[in-house]
Amino acid sequence: MNKFKVMVVGMGKRGKHHAAAFNANPNFQVCGICDIDAEKLNIAAPSLGNPAVGTDAAKMAKELKPDVFCFCTMPHIRTEMLKIAIECGAKMVAFEKPVALSMNEALKLKALVEKSGIKAVVSHQHRYGVHYRKVKEIADSGELGRVEMIYAGATGWMTHMMSHMIDYMLWYNGNAAAEWVIGQASGKSKLSDNHPSPDYIEGLIQFTNGVRGIVETGAGAPDQPEVAKWWGKNRICVQGTEGFAEVLTNGGWRAVSSKGVRKGDGAMNYDLDMPPYIQEMADWLVNGKVHQCNFENAFNGCEIVNGIVRSALYGGQVKLPLADGPDEIAELKAKLPEIKAIANSFNKTEFPGCE
Predict the structure, then answer these.
(1) What is the reported pLDDT for 133?
(2) Within this chain, do residues 167 and 118 fall inside the same structural domain, yes or no?
């Protein structure tokens, strides 16, 4: 079987994870890597079979004509990278979350994906962890009774973590659509970050199947004292009429139901989570089995995030789906009150701009 050629743009931590996982999968060949920092390319190339290297993504893509164009870059150049993928004739594009920094850009990306027909994947790969999958198994089994509420919280700030939290919330809820959202936000110190976000944001989500979602990220999110790693203090809980099951990103899973009190191990591990994420790309290319992390699901999550932001900015419930509108991040910078968020004690180091 001929291997699918892959070009990876961005040789930071996540780009190297992607490139290594593609290189280890027999369905793919890394034909090129790109970064604006040439030294990163020189360091990475030998372990990837010495593919072509360069600092100009558009030029390389045009020359190499990859089947898969993967970019792991900062979120402000999503549209530029997607256009390169389409123009070079790639069959598939894979990129990091979040989908976009504004609803306007997300809608433009959606239009580009639909018009071109390119297969698109967004990296919400935590779901491949054994502890995430165990909670999915319990939620789908019926042992929790009728699911009433799904809570998701992360101490990381919005543009890093809310996309993840909502994606797994949707997954646990059978990808039911969201009907409306309402939200609040506080604090502006992280709006200057390369993943711009309010310091703290929370939202309620009403799903069309009757399930209520609660999501919060940032300075005011609660601690998970069982977890030592700060970025792993993320909790997603599925609550039903007859019990609950929850996952901690770096703290395993636990459940209480008619089957008793149970728990198990599990922690985010790129070495374990990346291979199935990459294999599903091959499955989609070879036999048409749609990837779990497909763009449509990620877009739905992006819409929920931006609906919560719009509610925080303008008040009231926000009905979904969203039409275009003002740039949400620009509006947060301009209109969010100059009131410091209140950080929980364990969060003060990561949020020095908060009370």
Answers:
(1) 98
(2) no
